[in-house]
Amino acid sequence: MTTPFRFLNRPTVWFAGVAGSLSLGLIAFTPPTTLAQLPDSVKAAEAERIAVIAKVKPAVAAVCFFGGTACGSGVIISDDGLCLTNFHVVQPTGPVMQCGLADGKLYDSVLIGTDKVGDVALVKLLPKKPGETFPFVKLGDSDLVRAGDWSLAMGNPFGLAIDFNPTVTFGLVSGVNRYQPPEGKGTLEYTDCIQVDTSINPGNSGGPLFNMKGELIGINGRGSFDKRGRVNSGVGYAISINQIKNFLGHLKAGIDTDHATLGASFSTDSEEGDLSKVFVSSMLDESDAFRRGLKPQDQLVAFAGRSTTSTNQYKNVLGIFPKEWRVPLKYRRGTTSKEMLVRLMGNMETVKEREPQPGDAPMPKPGQPQPGGPPANPGAEKAKQSPAMKLVVEKKGYANFYFNTLAQDALLADMKKNFGDFSKLTGDWTLEGNVQLADRGGNVKLTWIDDKAGTTEVKMSREGIDDSVKPLGENVSQAELALPQGSGGLLVTLWHYRLLMTQLRDGLNPNGNVSPGFVHGGSEPFYPPLANGIVSANINDLRVDCNVLKTKKGQFEAKWYFSQKDGALLGCEATFTKEDDPCELYFYDFKEIGGVKLPHKIVCKFGDKVFATISARTYTLGKK
């Protein structure tokens, strides 16, 4: 039976006695080697291992119900107290819990973000004194892990660490890229995970798996047990840290994340041998892959940079990505191969919590004790008095919306720092310059004009062709919203850009921070084309990891991509219908105009084609 580790109870310890009699002289044995006789290499390896354990131990946490009753393990990954654990560890604690560290102290802690499908949660330990920092560990690269590597697991099995000093076990990595199916309706699915013979038991859930450098390579979560359900059979599973890195931006933003699906199913011509082929068997019409041109009977050659030779291999890779990410996909049709970017869909509308499985102990009702273990949440009443409760804001789709507002504030502060204060520039705007279309070029003039009713009209004039639209006007047709024809809504997207810069949260969030009009969207990769127009031979070379801001005004939604490296606004995707491709804008060559910075080169893409490249000579920004 394979199961995640849940509620703990102390084991009964039995000592084996000696039965019968000993016949001395019949047993020959070799005296053990003394420490002094061990080779220097063995002593050096042991000393190095002990040093690594001493270095990372202070950051290993015992995750507890409020009051100190153990329910799992965790590991701190930043000096401000961010701590990774399993979702199934914090599921019974609620949004507030406590974490014990090897210093012997219990720290009030609060849930930040959850990944129910991938069984990951992020919590934050609150310092005893303002400004106090926490010990933390370095994130490793789980793609470098190989079967046969040594590994260290640390945590609180069976609640043994009553002083919060973690238990340490040592063993081999047994396999990589393993798959464990969901435990419930779509929850606790372990894809691309690490298999270990390093002993992990109930209570190790959420604790760290380290390589021998002390780098975090995984979060322990599941194990295979005998029929009694409490004895490890030597097979454990850890969620790879590289998968968690993909979701970390979402978790930090307080999001209850979802995993991705491509919107297509695949079949394999043969599951045997190394040369099997994977083919598209069916597709959803609304999937981005379908819109990009993928068709049934196409061969899937590679997905997200990995060669694909079986459906299981494909599913294993797909499971490590959040919904809405874009990843490269390479396919072959006949003798022609092509690589394209595809947007991933959500896996499910609402992730349901795990239901009891055969072999599970009966789950207690709230407040009732579980046979042989602690109550469902023995500290629930005390937790209501915790200072961490002030850091909890409930909102549908979020594990804790309080942390989303913090992420919003940080992003807005960076925007003002990097681009200036646009708040007074709410009058009419004008851009004059050049435009290059697919078949012609020439002068262009863009204007943003507000009427007395406060409705903005955006106009574009280019070589005798005039287009205009009032996005929030009455009786505006879908054809008008998509102007100029073939752009997917360039004018509407430029209207949205001005609204974002001049009114920030206020213009998009009329009801305050709880409005869906302005939220932090976590992190995603973004793939801006090269500024010189040269097409890159490798899509992944264009990738820039970005923080995402999601905005909405009326029926108009947009995602804004800010480089995690320097805060640069690289572009956006804007939509006003769910059926069509977004209008994509890419921003280059920011220059200062009157104390603010504006892009002087804008590339507009729709679908797979570049619609226009706009080069600005001058901006005129009106004040109100």
Describe the overall structure.
The chain is of the alpha+beta class and 624 residues long. Among the domains are: 139-240, Thrombin, subunit H (Beta Barrel); 260-346, Roll (Pdz3 Domain), CATH 2.30.42; 419-621, outer membrane lipoprotein receptor (LolB), chain A (Clam), CATH 2.50.20. Helices cover 15% and strands 36% of the residues. The strands form 5 sheets. An 11-stranded antiparallel β-sheet has the order 25-24-23-22-32-31-30-29-28-27-26. The chain has a 6-stranded antiparallel barrel with strand order 8-9-10-13-12-11. Strands 2-3-4-7-6-5 form a 6-stranded antiparallel β-barrel. The longest helix is centred in the middle third of the chain and has 19 residues, at 401-419. It is globular. The chain starts with a strand and ends with a strand. Mean pLDDT is 86; it is low at 6-27, 350-374 and 510-516.
CATH T-level fold name of the domain at 419-621: outer membrane lipoprotein receptor (LolB), chain A
Number of helices: 9
Note the beta-strand portion: 35-45%
Q: What share of residues is helical?
A: 10-25%
Kindly name the structural category: alpha+beta
> What's the end-to-end separation, in Å?
68 Å
Rg, Cα atoms, Å? 28 Å
Strand sequence of the main sheet, in spatial order? 25-24-23-22-32-31-30-29-28-27-26
Average pLDDT confidence is 86
Give me the count of strands: 32
CATH class of the domain at 419-621: Mainly Beta
Unreliable stretches (pLDDT < 50, length at least 5) are 6-27, 350-374, 510-516
Task: Tell me which CATH architecture of the domain at 419-621 applies here.
Answer: Clam
